[in-house]
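Researcher: Here's a chain I'd like modeled. Treat it as a single chain, no partners, no ligands.
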Amino acid sequence: MPAIEHIDPQPVPHDATEVMIPMRDGIRLAADLYLAGSPRPGPVVLVRMPYDKGGVYSFMPPISRYFRAHGYHVLVQDVRGKYRSEGVPEFAVNEVNDGYDTIQWLTEQAWCDGDVVMWGDSYYGYTAIAAAISGHPALRAFAPRVTGSQLSMPLEYSDGTRDVEQMARKGYFATHYVDAHRYEWEPDWNIRPLRAVFERFFDQVGRRSANFDAEFEGDSRFVPAPLKALLESPPVPVLFTIGWFDICAVWAWHDVRALSRHPAWAEHLHLRLEAIDHENYWLGHAPIAPDEDHRTDPGALERLLPRYVDPAIEFFDAVLGRRGALPPRVRYEICHGEWHDSTTWPPPGAGRLEYHLAPGVLTTEPTPQGIRLEWTHDPAELVPSPGADPFAALMDRSDLAPIGEREDVLRFSGPVAGQDTDLMGAVILSLRLTAPAGANVHTRLLDVTPDGRAYLITRGQAHLDLAARSQHVVIDLQSIAYRLREGHRLALDIMSSDFPHYVPEAPASADPWHALPGEPVTREITLGGPGASCLRIGDRHIDDLRPPSAEHRG
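Model: Modeled as a single isolated chain. Structure tokens:
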């Protein structure tokens, strides 16, 4: 078993004061308070996180000082059961009520002028959404980044498909939700069944995660409140930041689509779309050199802070009437291009491309005759995921050209771009598929360079709850704003696994966490002819083709 590092809480920073804030049930949550200058009344930036408010993992001391330098008091809180806070660590269970109670406590402090705003990435962006669900009137604005209300939950759809579960959900519980602290360890994904990877971990540390065990016991406590709860809450100005290379973007887009269709929330919604991954690495630096790695280089972190925090400060300043005007409804970065502003996403006038699938190629002309194409999925030889860390996708920026040479991957290559072409909007793949219930389909859209290297633009996947018998399955590859440069071409890969970023399918729809690899199985798609498989890039949205089921938790 690889070494396991136990991460204890860091000391309270020298320029912060730790306070214990009582919740309605008597549990006290620890928070570090950074007052801006003299403790006169002013607005407060609240951050609620499970990652140690004083540690290096999320850089909260320098971020708090950055907010403070712009005139904000800052309160950074360990969520219930984590680090210095009391209680039991429970993913998503208490964040609505604890968010409300913390905001209420803030409004009762002499140094708070009654205005509270919230900011954060990932889970500490989710806690901002949860506080908005609580409806506390003192929450004036929130700026969640690389997150969503249904964080880590596979979304379900009305056409009998759902998202393939990300491996990270179980790994998260074994890293952050065993006890009050954090465990750093590297899973051995060669072990089968997959659950045994975690059982060995629990045996070695001598304790278990109740959140992990609940996944297998039918206990549904550790799931976020449904998106409906946010939609039914009083609208609050919100700035969503979505990374084009963020593996969690699926949940952000899910929220943004719903909020943009809601008459009251739509008026308060602002988007910032960046060429970043979940760890805030930027495409322009990929692959990341040591002196650009903000997780290890202090200079890189210092250079990151303005890009990282300024958009929220400008947004909060405008909402609170301190200075400046609200940002445009949409501010987006084109990958390998420039920043632009828009009133909508996609921007007005964005072009639309449609590619038809023919053997080995993407073509703008439909193939009149139906052609069947097969690939064989071998559960013992899974298609590797791009890059070592799904959350730091731009760290190594893997060349995926060799993947297209595998027999279990279908690659379709488009024409060479005669000039720089900006691709903007939703990417939707409609496959005429034959596959059994329980099958997974993974897809990747690639940028192929003139010398043959292939880099990920975006990807999507679907798990079939129902068998597909030569019928259309719609796969959401999210939205993009990507400059396909002159001499480059698009490619599309179709396969049945993407491991270890996503849970592999199991034989005969068995539980993939308990099952051993089954026998190779063949899948089939139909190209050409009536109702042909096709790839759409542009202004038509996934929800026009596959609306989410009213019954799913989102």
